[in-house]
Amino acid sequence: MIECESINELFAARIYDFDSDVVSFHEQALRIHYLEHGEERTHVPDFVVRRLARTDIDEIKDKLDEASEVDAVRSALLTPLLAQLGIRYRLRIVDKSRFRNRISFYRLILRLGRVEPTQLEREGARQLLKARSCLYWADVERGALGARSCSVAARLILEGAVFVVNVDEPSHDEIQLLPQSRGMQPPDPWGM
User: Fold this and answer.
1) Which side of the chain, N or C, has fewer Cβ within a 10 Å radius?
2) Across the strands, what pairs with 24?
3) Is the torsion defined by CA of 139, 143, 146, 147 positive or negative?
4) Residue 16 pLDDT more than 90?
5) Structure pTM?
6) How far apart are CA 17 and CA 118, in angstroms?
7) How far apart are CA 162 and CA 148, in angstroms?
8) What DSSP line would sit under 11-52, residue for residue?
9) How far apart are CA 147 and CA 170, in angstroms?
10) For 92-147, how does the pLDDT look when each residue is reduced to its tens digit (9 = 90+)?
11) What is the dihedral of CA 50, 80, 188, 112, to 10 degrees?
């Protein structure tokens, strides 16, 4: 369980859950003390996100115009300082109208992906994706991956074995599943 202070933070938590690169995330897990124009300040960022290759500190805002001057100044100060420690500081904008379809799909995948596919289901999915190079979510819903098609696809997405693109389409049917291939960078779950 995590405690979110806004719907934007809840959206961010779902994105972290969906992102196969995220190992763990914690809300308001630390305090950062810093100097701004000689004045001591304290900042409690919304999330600390541990990834496979790095740690991120994310501050979540609703829209860019709602990110205040204080946020911009703090971000400009903390970004290079934390980078020296190998930590990336980011001001993340979660525009609810832009993220609605994305979050809806992520919620679906998180719900369906709880089931562990059998080795036979995994191999069938691998062979089908190798033969077709792309699969649409509509195909998955029609059973392209067998009796538990949606659950198998969802689990493979969450594990990072399959990437999704076009997640902002109004219909989930148009979302494409691509097999992970060597050298291919996964799409940013934030869509940025």
Assistant:
1) N
2) 50
3) positive
4) yes
5) 0.84
6) 22
7) 16
8) HHHHHHHH-TTEEEEEET---EEEEETTEEEEE--SEEEEES
9) 26
10) 888 777 788 889 999 999 999 999 999 999 999 989 988 987 899 999 999 999 99
11) 20
